[in-house]
From TrEMBL:
Recorded family membership: Belongs to the metallo-dependent hydrolases superfamily. HutI family.
Pathway: Amino-acid degradation; L-histidine degradation into L-glutamate; N-formimidoyl-L-glutamate from L-histidine: step 3/3
SUPFAM superfamilies named among the record's database cross-references: Composite domain of metallo-dependent hydrolases, Metallo-dependent hydrolases
Gene Ontology cellular component terms for the protein in this record: cytoplasm
Catalytic activity of the protein: 4-imidazolone-5-propanoate + H2O = N-formimidoyl-L-glutamate
Keyword terms of this UniProt record: Cytoplasm, Histidine metabolism, Hydrolase, Iron, Metal-binding, Zinc
Native source species: Salvelinus namaycush
Record-given protein name: Probable imidazolonepropionase
EC number in record: 3.5.2.7
Start and end residues of each Amidohydrolase domain: 278-422
Required cofactor names: Fe(3+)
Amino acid sequence: MSNKLLVKNAKQVVLICNNGEKFLTKDGMQKLCVIENSSLVIGSDGLIKDIGPASTIDFQYAGVLFDKVIDATGMCVIPGLVDAHTHPVWAGDRVHEFAMKLAGATYMDVHRAGGGIHFTVEHTRAALPSTLLASLTGRLGRMQRAGTTLVECKSGYGLELQTELKMLEVIETARRTLPINISSTYCGAHAVPKGKTVAEATTDILKVQLPQLRERMSAGALRVDNIDVFCEQGVFDLSSTRSILQAGLDMGLNINFHGDELHPMNSAQLGAELGALAISHLEEVTDDGIAAMATAKTAAILLPTTAYILRLPQPRARDMLEAGVIVALGSDFNPNAYCCSMPVVMHLACVNMRMSMPEALAAATINAAYALGRSHTHGSLEVNKHGDLLVLNAPRWEHLIYQLGGHQELIRYVVIRGNVVYNNDKTMDF
Ligand SMILES: N=CN[C@@H](CCC(=O)O)C(=O)O
Ligand SMILES: [Zn+2]
């Protein structure tokens, strides 16, 4: 059988790491593994078969058949980007709320007034699965064209069994039919539904929603990877968060939840204690929380768009990095933060959170893959990992971050498992 793809003669190939690391911290994030004038081979199984100097690969593969050859002369190759936090299934946009927030309303002002998540819940409950699937497909396509090849997708705009399952089923259909890799998250505790107390909502999740989910998962109808809770004042408190996350863990789900966003809740300490794979947001995390996450190897998924749009204090990326926390990035795509682009997210992380460009790229590849439990197969260009990569029309990879909003011109090809899923022949010469 012929190999799927040869990407030849790239100016730079950014491997990220090359010793099977599952994540990078501290100095490891500063010194990414980059090789020059190199080629990469993806085999018939869609996995990376070989990476090396262009002349060596030319010699070794002389006469070997490839389904496709990309001449990457003058271009760069990086791993496909990993978006570790999105809410992409919903109906009803919130452009009107953006205007309210620009005029001074806070996120919780809008939420308490029955808008925010509640507005989206109302529209998502009423939407047909086919409508949700069509908009999800469009959004995932946009993300893919911006370089995302693995994305976490949450439910959480149902807050009751039927709509939560509808959302997870829509995500499942996307996972089975689209090329983009998906990590699916049950987020039934995204808000306390109108008319219910926290205790009632928690009981519904524990006694109704999770058992039904478990049943569908064991029947093979649904694959769900992670469990999420919005642990926040006025949403789910620490003790209800604990019981929901523990129940998810007992079902085999990875813990990956919203914590310490608007108030210090000790979410980081709770996550570390429960062995959470990741906690998102953390704008209000304490020093103790940071230390607990570093020790537990719980990844911090930082979301630069949230702090930017809501004008919140920035997450303390530098303190986390210095403490040895595994820092990852996500777009937080949702009706509040309408951003599909990880290159924009990396740019914001560098400018507003003071990360370096190598740190941002490590956070958007290997560390984001770790946060989703996928860093053994994704997040770096290493032999036997998935052949998911981007070819950039630029002589140095840093252009993808430096050129704010420039990804539409810079990304020449997006490749998933050796297949070109986006060929941007409109790219201009550098
Ligand atoms: N903070 C909670 N959840 C989302 C926002 C969801 C929404 O506003 O619809 C977030 O991560 O930013
Ligand atoms: Zn979120």
